[in-house]
Fold this protein.
Amino acid sequence: MPKRVNHDERRRQIAGAVWRIAADQGLDAVNMRDVAAEAGVSLRLVQYYFETKHNLLVLALRYLNERSEQRATARIAATPGATSTRAVLREVLMEFLPIDEEHRDTLRVHLAYYVRSLNDPELAAVFLNDETPLEELVAGMLDQAHEAGELVSRVNARHEADLIVSGVNGLGIDLLHGRRQLDDVVAVIDYHLARLFG
Amino acid sequence: MPKRVNHDERRRQIAGAVWRIAADQGLDAVNMRDVAAEAGVSLRLVQYYFETKHNLLVLALRYLNERSEQRATARIAATPGATSTRAVLREVLMEFLPIDEEHRDTLRVHLAYYVRSLNDPELAAVFLNDETPLEELVAGMLDQAHEAGELVSRVNARHEADLIVSGVNGLGIDLLHGRRQLDDVVAVIDYHLARLFG
DNA sequence: TTCTTGATGATACGAACGTATCAGATACGG
DNA sequence: CCGTATCTGATACGTTCGTATCATCAAGAA
């Protein structure tokens, strides 16, 4: 048996190049040649591992989702005062804001994919199937907080979760554009957490 | 003086073709030749009126924003029971959801532009300058409702407006993907209106 | 009619890009 | 060292697209 290589790892390496290019030039600017150059490999190798560009984009999105989830769970695990549902919830919501360059890039790429998926069923499937619905997670946390007596009053957990999750997404998009400042967005989130938790 | 033609109207006619193509094939699929065909004019005429493709896209966005605002003000004017701030606010929020095919198309195109503007300063400028910030409008309505004694309690109008506007945007995006149903989204909005107005 | 603006048609250039092809280099386990 | 898996390089094909060119036609006001 000759040279053995971890194909999956190679694919992730190349997918990383897709993210970097998409993050600062847009998903439209992603082409096979530039991806190869950015990944430090030959064009031929990109073809070798992904066959087609479409395949490359789809898999790059899968890997991106994987990494986002890992980062989120890691953040939750590292939350100080994890006994408080409120503290954990706050961290979860923060994870979806462009709080640093890495999150900002991820959000930009994610959003670009989101729009493209409106006209690409295969990409849409990745969004609809591979992603854990955040609203349900948040709603569960609110229920849990209610039972623990942490909430200020009885609320409709599902509706509250829907608005706050969608709201954080919308606020994140505004941040990308510079339409808002991070401080203000955090203030809005904290205001609504205070409304729920007192 | 020879043949006179309303240039602005011609440009709007061609811009309409851009919207239609972008709405059901994506902004990437917009090219000069297809726009000309869709508008029922020659390729040469599209070049004649817009010079470059970039120009065409920028102006098409301007016209799209104009039309959206007109539609919004028309909707507000036609609101039954316009004496109630709550009723007006509800209509304003609805206007940003894909409630019918026309709104759905507008939202798709708008979103596609939004993402592209992340890598195109000229498009970003259109978003940042030409658009009336909805949050301020909503915050103003909440203040007004408070003074009229319509609100159930004292709230931070600005923070409430920020979340509900961003939330409606986020919910609208989910609707485009089929991740949510319109009924559910309306229920979420009504829940939060009830929370504010009682 | 004449002149100017509005509009068309055919065509072509050059660049970018996805994909394909083929020959060959490199490295590693048996 | 031999064979296989991995990787590269150069190159080419066909298509799409933005843009440019030039000749021409239509129409209406002066």
Residues 1-5, 10, 41-45, 48 of chain B lie near DNA strand C (CB under 10 Å from a C1'). The CA atoms of residues 22 and 30 of chain B lie 6 Å apart. Chain B is about 75% helix and 0% strand.
